[in-house]
Design brief:
The protein is an alpha/beta fold. It has 2 domains: 286 residues, Alpha-Beta Barrel (nicotinate phosphoribosyltransferase), CATH 3.20.140; 170 residues, TIM Barrel (Alpha-Beta Barrel). 39% of the residues lie in helices and 19% in strands. The strands form 5 sheets. Strands 13-12-1-5-3-19-20 form a 7-stranded antiparallel sheet. A 6-stranded parallel sheet has the order 7-6-11-10-9-8. A 4-stranded mixed sheet has the order 18-14-15-21. Strand 14 and strand 15 form a beta hairpin. Helix 1 crosses helix 4 and helix 10 packs parallel to helix 11. The chain starts with 10 loop residues before the first helix and ends with a helix.
Length: 488
Amino acid sequence: MWTKWSLLTDLYQLTMAGGYVEEGKTDQWANFDYFFRSIPDNGGYCVLAGLEDLVDYVLNLRFSQEDLAYLEKVGPFSSKFLKYLEGFSFSGHMWAMPEGTIVFPHEPLIRVMAPLPEAQLIETTLLNIMNFQTLIATKAARLCWAANGDPVIDFGLRRAHGPHGALMASRAAYIGGVEGSSNVLAGELYGIPVRGTHAHSWVESFPSELEAFRAYARVYPDSCVLLVDTYDTLKSGVPNAIKVGKELARKGYRLKGIRLDSGDLAYLSKEARRMLDEAGFQDVLIIASSDLDEWIIESLKRQGARIDIWGVGTRLVTSYSSPALGGVYKLTALDENGREMVPKIKRSDNPEKITNPGVKKVVRMYDQEGQMRGDVLFLEEERPPKGRSFRAYHPMFTHVFKTYPKEFQMKELLVPIFQGGKLVYKLPKLFEIRQAALENLRRLDPGYKRFHNPHVYHVSLSARLFKTKQKLLRQAILNANRAARARK
């Protein structure tokens, strides 16, 4: 899929890479972390998605002669840099949390260690893929939480941000928990179950609603779901669906469901359920659509709506209420002497933008019931203290820490994806990723899943990493003060 996307990058990635080549930095290695700073919709967690597309992109990242000719024409690039690109392939290392992992702010979700130009060149597309799919997988998980066990279907293809965005959205939504999609191409490419009914235009194309329903039932007697709100839901739509349902039953078939796409869904679904039950159609499902999101679904459930399946479109595939995940890709260590990676830090007056330095691993802590209780960042060379209690520190405040008891279990989350440019990770099937995401969500306390004032999940630093960070911050302040005095 990504073989034609080598120039899907920001110009400044190419100018920096070109500068690295000109400055002789092609053999200088760097470590970059991909992470995000805040959770969309003021939520309590995110669901990681997009790794398979990222792997495909990195494996196929090459620059064709047409690409090089274009860059020679539009950019200030030297022949040396263009020659470098001509033979480009990723030769570095990459670690990542598997897709479907529940993730939180300020922890490395992907770690890239590679020669500077290589690590730099993949930044933009990495962010494009991972930010969007993680955003949509998270929105899907929230919708499924609101539906409380009812199936949720992705109806968003026509409102998605372009054809490729629609495919990514359907894939990510499936990881997040939806049970199917109206997107037929996503079904073919990814094996996602495809679902759908008919539109109002079908009903309007016949002389009457009843004739439209009868025609649809003739063509699709084994999968007949009727849209009942074209004219009047309770006076004509549901009664006509019941009439067609009885006709189907006499022929040995059954009406599968009705769909509501407008109006007061709580009231209409309760009345429709009553009418269907009284007619002997207790097994006919009621499907609802109409610009749904997690807050509307939660409210409808609270009002006692009799809806069995939720079709969600625009507000799923665009993450309408929070349309971007602010993922970033920051340099955290650099090979300065040819032997070891030296920790680096970005300092800012905004505490949220201060990075966690060094090459790190992420360890998830589980209590005796297998519930997630916090993540701790350790420097790569550290051994997590298994079998004994320990303190982990707030990323900024020395007086804020969390003590983990010795009984807690530990799991390292970052796994090798590429080693020396070679793929060493076996990509799981999409269904397996979805199952892993659902299992991970099960191990997250409900307090983190609620939509209003969720618990804040602790992402902490080991004592050694915390000291390293404070030391680098003090040094950065000293350097800034020296520079200020020198200018006077």
